[in-house]
Design brief:
Radius of gyration: 24 Å
Oligomer: single chain
Number of helices: 11
Structural class: alpha/beta
Distance between the termini: 6 Å
Shape: elongated
Largest sheet: 8 strands, parallel
Order of helices and strands: EHEHHEHEHEHEHEHEHEEEEEEEEEEHHE
Number of strands: 19
């Protein structure tokens, strides 16, 4: 999928669609054959490019897509995506667009429930239950009022009941995950009993699929695992961010580097300037030797503060040339390692990558 324009870009996010296929197939292998898969492609598919990723997953047999808002869903439809698209946070202003583009809202409070109920249009909806995360969703004590409303508003077709796990990545807090799973089971049983229907159910994300497979229900939501960011060695990172050395300069002992003169050379040194900055999603906390990049397979430290469109590295111990490749993250410098060094999560590293970075798929 390369184009002539590709050669014009200095910084490129290379995305391996074969690795995406590997990850999808591996996660599918953990599931029972009848389990449906919704792929999470919100936030520009975690920075990887939602349209290309969704089109690839559609060819692999995914059953639907999970996005954050109506605009993400609308863009997928305009790009030709045919499968089910669920809107996690539909809001109250986007009703017309959701109907027009055949999108399906997650209903998580009575405000949304009443809005969609009074419109009178037949629409599939997905009821969200607060199983313990205390973010979105109906509480257990609201189930009678919820089901009573749904019985009176038969235009609302309950397609599924869902919830969200809060600590499934943290083994030391598995007791919380088990409590959430139990709460979800209880809610689903009561909901079905009151409504006299058996909607599909889903609560597992990637970590849930791998760690609590017996709670597969009818549907699972594959997110970060599709992109290969995991401690599971069977999941392959699909993205590699590469830039180059835009300029090399020599500085003397005592000279400063970057904004606020936050770095002062302790000796004569050689530095490289990389044309990538916090406007591109490079976290400013990586500055002043908190982070590194890879040049000629060697980790070199970032020095000074990261600027909006550039940052500097110490290349005193290697001998690169201007124009040489610089790997921001990839096999030698994983997104997981970068996130751990910052005390954050891989989602943040990927989702904040600016769309001005060229994506190339192969």
């Amino acid at each position: 999928m390369k184009s002539k324009m590709s050669t014009l870009h200095e910084t490129i996010l290379y995305i391996n669609l074969n690795a995406l296929e590997n990850n999808f197939n591996y996660l599918k292998s953990v599931l029972k054959s009848e389990i449906k898969v919704f792929a999470v492609v919100k936030a520009f598919a975690y920075g990887h490019g939602d349209i290309v990723i969704a089109k690839k997953l559609e060819t692999l047999g995914v059953n639907g897509f999970w996005v954050a808002d109506f605009e993400e869903g609308m863009n997928l439809r305009k790009a030709g995506i045919k499968k089910k698209i669920i809107i996690a946070n539909p809001g109250v202003k986007s009703y017309a667009e959701i109907i027009k583009y055949n999108l399906e809202p997650v209903i998580y409070n009575f405000r949304l429930l009443k809005l969609y109920g009074k419109k009178g249009c037949s629409i599939p909806i997905h009821i969200k239950f607060n199983s313990g995360m205390n973010r979105y969703g109906f509480n257990m004590n609201e189930i009678k009022s919820l089901t009573s409303f749904l019985k009176k508003n038969i235009n609302l077709k309950v397609d599924s009941v869902c919830s969200h796990l809060s600590v499934v990545d943290n083994k030391s807090k598995d007791f919380i995950t088990r409590e959430q799973l139990q709460n979800f089971d209880t809610f689903c049983k009561l909901f079905s009993s009151y409504m006299k229907i058996e909607p599909e159910r889903h609560i597992l994300n990637t970590s849930g699929i791998l760690r609590f497979p017996k709670y597969q229900k009818n549907i699972v939501r594959m997110g970060i695992g599709l992109y290969g960011v995991s401690n599971d060695k069977n999941l392959i990172p699909i993205a590699k961010l590469v830039s180059n050395i835009a300029q090399i300069r020599e500085i003397k002992k005592g000279e400063n580097v970057g904004y606020d003169a936050s770095f002062k050379a302790n000796s004569d040194m050689k530095i490289g300037i990389i044309p990538l900055g916090y406007a591109d999603g490079i976290n400013r906390k990586l500055g002043n030797k908190q982070g590194s990049v890879v040049i000629h397979k060697i980790h070199v430290p970032i020095i000074g503060k990261i600027s909006m469109d550039s940052f500097m590295v110490d290349i005193s111990d290697i001998n690169p040339k201007e124009g040489d490749a610089v790997t921001i993250f990839g096999e030698e410098n994983s997104v997981l390692d970068i996130a751990n060094s910052l005390g954050t999560i891989p989602y943040e590293i990927l989702a904040t990558l600016n769309r001005r970075i060229k994506r190339i798929y192969n």
